[in-house]
Amino acid sequence: MSELKGACIIGQSGGPTSVINTSVLGAIETALDCPSITRVLGAAHGIRGVLDDQLLDIDKEDREELKLLRYTPSSALGSCRYKLADPDVDDTDYKRILEIFKKYDVRYFFYNGGNDSMDTCNKISKFMMKSGYDCRVMGIPKTIDNDLFGTDHCPGYASASKYIATSCMEIYQDARVYDTGMVCVVEIMGRHAGWLTAAAGLATAQGAGPDLIYLPETDFDMDKFMADVKKVYAEKGNCLVAVSEGIHYADGTFVSEAKTSATDGFGHAQLGGLAAMLADKIKSELGVKVRGIELSLLQRCAAHCASKTDVDESYMSGKAAVENAVAGKTDYMPGFKCTRDENGYKCEIELLPLSQVANTEKKVPREWINAEGNGVTQAFIDYAMPLIAGDNVGPKENGLPRFAKLKKIKAEA
Amino acid sequence: MSELKGACIIGQSGGPTSVINTSVLGAIETALDCPSITRVLGAAHGIRGVLDDQLLDIDKEDREELKLLRYTPSSALGSCRYKLADPDVDDTDYKRILEIFKKYDVRYFFYNGGNDSMDTCNKISKFMMKSGYDCRVMGIPKTIDNDLFGTDHCPGYASASKYIATSCMEIYQDARVYDTGMVCVVEIMGRHAGWLTAAAGLATAQGAGPDLIYLPETDFDMDKFMADVKKVYAEKGNCLVAVSEGIHYADGTFVSEAKTSATDGFGHAQLGGLAAMLADKIKSELGVKVRGIELSLLQRCAAHCASKTDVDESYMSGKAAVENAVAGKTDYMPGFKCTRDENGYKCEIELLPLSQVANTEKKVPREWINAEGNGVTQAFIDYAMPLIAGDNVGPKENGLPRFAKLKKIKAEA
């Protein structure tokens, strides 16, 4: 494969995570030090920044300040939830993207996101090939949802899991402090896949976590749920419950559906308010003290509780995308291939074709959920435990985190 | 003052904090090493444990395990929200307490809690004096609410503040990530005093915090609030708002009041759901994307984000209670007297009479709130900033906190 010289664009898309900036840092630092890459551009708000010709001049950022991206949550370049049309139906956006690529002599495109973003990346990749424009396109995975197909796990998942498990351990201590009992329901993100909610089971494995865990991989039955809660409360005098926002009845209706009819930019129903709703129901039926807690945005932005393993792997992922592209690969996403055995945990990069990862959701295997559908098995714990190892301790200023402050200078062609 | 020999009881009461166990550890370790104290007993669930003769044999706990209380949130001995009657009206409980004190030869009583608990402590102290039973009674302050009178601040406040400010900084990063704007409302604890919500201003002082902050110390005006939000959103394209759960209209009605009519054991209205309610209102009136986040229990139990300063001071507070009691003092609570000047921050113990601290709420001074009533001033920042300094890093096990596991052996007389 001959050397391809030109600029690169790095963009972020979809919901942010605690470590998506670390993936971008891995890509940026590798690109800045790479002779084939003549210029490093950031897309302001993902593909929208490309379409709107809003590119950031990363070469003008201070290298030391960039390093703080390792401790800075959310998407430093800005994100979007813009869905590209099917190019066979409407190729307006794709032509515009090609125009911008040509304008800045962009020969490398790195897109950092989840399912929908890998779809965007895949479509752009295929369009560039079809157009005969020589450009190497690589996805860089991120999603707290952990639902990307083909990879052992996704950057961002472990840090969210560590926060969820830590918070559940702390809530467990708090929610059973009184002589009078309480049922506490914690609502965790995850529309269709229960990976995040399952992570609450890591707290249970430490002896201080939810008594009951409900994932969207199994159908929810309200009567069984109430009976489960009643049984645990009768035995222990307290009950801590973790539910995924996406739990649904057998007919597919979300349990939370009555609460809101808003949708996000991709047409997904915006869920929420489920914990409060279930807590109210428990209170009225069982007559016990209740509390509903929604972890909300905190679970995806709590960089102060990030997993060192996750941070290191996220960096490796961004770095691998750039290195492989420069070495001639295109149309891939660096995934993780992991081993967990008597020698411990090991994680290696494995390139996955974009078309394979785009739009395919990976769910928690049924056998990692207990028979009753109200907890996780040891197999899940063995899978997730190594991912949350280590703390990612960043610099502090006045007792608070010191986040990266980028100049974000608009690039000129 | 002659030496007083006998057992001590240490109890915890009211809502727990991240560091209330550190205060108890300070008291326990000092008591265990003190020749005048013949036996260290823990009250299971505060004064209820005394009334029910449910005392724990702290002498039988492992000293190394006890040390983990420094990293363990919530009240390890158990808490209660039991209000003692006015002894002039009904002295049944007091007579029972005296009976238990005599049964175990209790000569020292340490009660760790907030306003209501200091009231309990004060009443017991006065009853013992009146009864001529020689027993030294000391309160040990704790409350994330920071509303105890006479002390510069309260153990527990700083750690909750550090969590609130850190989380607000993280939410700030996350809630402005998209090209489309958002208004995010964060609901923070504090019924009558706005100390905790004010702490969100520490994030703002770091350049990444709420644009608007509303405390219960000023009357809330919904029209002014909507105008404030609209103005910030128009200027910045995003708006982060922090509100105290206790914000109220000029007539005293809680803004959240319509949401719930439940009350806790002390007859206080149980608040909540305010963030979602305000977010909904903003959405319907301004037509913008919104999110309501309630920090809920997390803010008082997030030991993983505790302030080292708070932890050290909490320990000092428990230690001071025991040392002063053994030295002959009774009927006091060790408060903090602090200086903040060119030599930095200094905190010393100052004994405060129990009758003075009981049931008097300290509020945020009006001059620490800006003229518009939607933010805090530099004077507040100068006050709070030193309190959140330092991280309290505890041992981990499988990537998660290792909390103290006490044996909790029931004491026999």
UniProtKB/TrEMBL annotation, chains A, B:
Principal location listed in the UniProt entry: cytoplasm
Domain Phosphofructokinase residue range list: 9-302
Binding site for Mg(2+): N115
Keyword Secreted: no
Gene Ontology BP annotations: fructose 6-phosphate metabolic process
Source organism superkingdom: Bacteria
Keyword Plastid part of the UniProt annotation: no
Any Gene Ontology CC annotation: cytoplasm
Catalytic residues (positions): D145 (proton acceptor)
Class in the EC hierarchy, top level: transferase
Compartments reported by the entry: Cytoplasm
Catalytic activity: beta-D-fructose 6-phosphate + diphosphate = beta-D-fructose 1,6-bisphosphate + phosphate + H(+)
Residues given in the record as substrate binding sites: T143, I144, D145, M189, G190, R191, E245
Family that this chain belongs to: Belongs to the phosphofructokinase type A (PFKA) family. PPi-dependent PFK group II subfamily. Clade 'B2' sub-subfamily.
Summary of the function given for this chain in its UniProt record: Catalyzes the phosphorylation of D-fructose 6-phosphate, the first committing step of glycolysis. Uses inorganic phosphate (PPi) as phosphoryl donor instead of ATP like common ATP-dependent phosphofructokinases (ATP-PFKs), which renders the reaction reversible, and can thus function both in glycolysis and gluconeogenesis. Consistently, PPi-PFK can replace the enzymes of both the forward (ATP-PFK) and reverse (fructose-bisphosphatase (FBPase)) reactions.
Quaternary structure, from the entry: Homodimer.
Protein name (database record): Pyrophosphate--fructose 6-phosphate 1-phosphotransferase
Source organism (scientific name): Butyricicoccus pullicaecorum 1.2
Gene that produces this protein: pfp
